């Protein structure tokens, strides 16, 4: 009997191994890589709300950065708020150029006082307590400033100014203001008999009759070019001493 050759035996063994490998379960798939943890996004800070209007203590650099926007006018130096003597005091006026409604007083680089008159109607005439900046904004139109003075009271400087609606013969309305606010009014429009008549006297006015240059100038404004000239005359004749 004839034996099989060795190559044939080895070939059968190899074939059997191939078949066994083909029938075996495939190798499990490798697990997907674990994702790296990502950092949580940083919180975005909410923007600082813009204030509606300046407030006491606000830095002066922020006065025109509120919802009011730019000031219609900036006065420096201004009437001293509450008589505080400081040449660096500044006033910001917001609103219409001919009718501001918010007044912001600054001193030393910060807001010291805010006057908010928004919502108020344009007044027909000046009234006590009205901001002096409104003197020329009423239904009377522009008033003429006649006199001004400065004096100390209770340790504070007070600046007094006087305004009239008048012609060469009569005064129809008078308003006096102290430290930026109207303090006195006199309405002569409906009482012609009480109008102040500025008649030119035949001789120079008697300064000794007046206790201060303001009243002297008020009654004799037609006799002088301006208040300073009248005050100088009053001082020479009466011997008084005026602040101006």
Describe the structure.
By secondary structure, the protein is of the alpha+beta class. The chain has a domain at about 50-120. The protein has helices at about 5-25, 215-220, 225-240; strands at about 75, 90-95, 100-105, 110-115, 145-155, 155-165, 170-180, 180-185. A 4-stranded antiparallel sheet has the order 1-2-3-4, with no helix packed on it. A 4-stranded antiparallel sheet has the order 5-6-7-8, covered by helices on one side. Strand 2 (about 90-95) and strand 3 form a beta hairpin.
Blueprint of the fold:
Layout lengths: L5 H18 L49 E3 L14 E7 L2 E9 L2 E7 L27 E10 L2 E11 L4 E8 L2 E7 L25 H7 L7 H12 L6
Antiparallel strand pairs: 1-2, 2-3, 3-4, 5-6, 6-7, 7-8
Helix pairs in contact: 2-3
End-to-end CA span:
153 Å
Q: Spans with pLDDT under 50 lasting ≥5 residues?
A: 197-203, 239-244
Side-by-side strand order of the widest sheet: 1-2-3-4
Average pLDDT across residues? 75
Residue share in helix: 10-25%
Number of strands: 8
Taken in chain order, the helices and strands follow as: HEEEEEEEEHH
Q: Largest beta sheet, briefly?
A: 4 strands, antiparallel
Structural class determined from secondary elements: alpha+beta
Beta-strand residue percentage:
25-35%
Kindly report the oligomeric state of this protein: single chain
User: Tally the helices: what do you get?
Assistant: 3
The dominant shape is rod-shaped
* Rg, nearest Å: 45 Å
């Amino acid at each position: 009997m004839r034996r099989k050759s060795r190559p044939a035996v080895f070939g059968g063994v190899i074939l059997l191994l191939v078949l066994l490998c083909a029938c075996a379960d495939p190798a499990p798939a490798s697990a997907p890589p674990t994702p790296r943890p990502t950092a949580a996004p940083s919180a975005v800070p909410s923007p600082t709300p813009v204030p509606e209007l300046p407030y006491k203590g606000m830095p002066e650099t922020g006065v025109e950065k509120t919802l009011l926007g730019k000031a219609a006018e900036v006065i420096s130096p201004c009437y001293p708020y509450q008589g505080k003597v400081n040449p660096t005091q500044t006033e910001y006026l917001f609103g219409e150029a001919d009718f501001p409604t918010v007044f912001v007083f600054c001193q030393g680089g910060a807001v010291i006082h805010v006057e908010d008159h928004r919502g108020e109607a344009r007044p027909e005439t000046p009234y006590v307590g009205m901001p002096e900046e409104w003197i020329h904004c009423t239904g009377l139109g522009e008033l003429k400033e006649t006199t001004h003075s400065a004096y100390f009271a209770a340790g504070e400087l007070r600046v007094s100014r006087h305004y009239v609606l008048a012609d060469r013969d009569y005064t129809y309305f008078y308003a006096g203001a102290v430290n930026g606010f109207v303090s006195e009014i006199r309405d002569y429009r409906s009482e012609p008999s009480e109008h102040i008549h500025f008649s030119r006297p035949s001789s120079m006015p008697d300064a000794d009759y007046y206790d201060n240059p303001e009243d002297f100038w008020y009654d004799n404004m037609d006799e002088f070019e301006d208040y300073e000239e009248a005050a100088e005359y009053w001082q020479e004749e009466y011997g008084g001493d005026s602040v101006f």
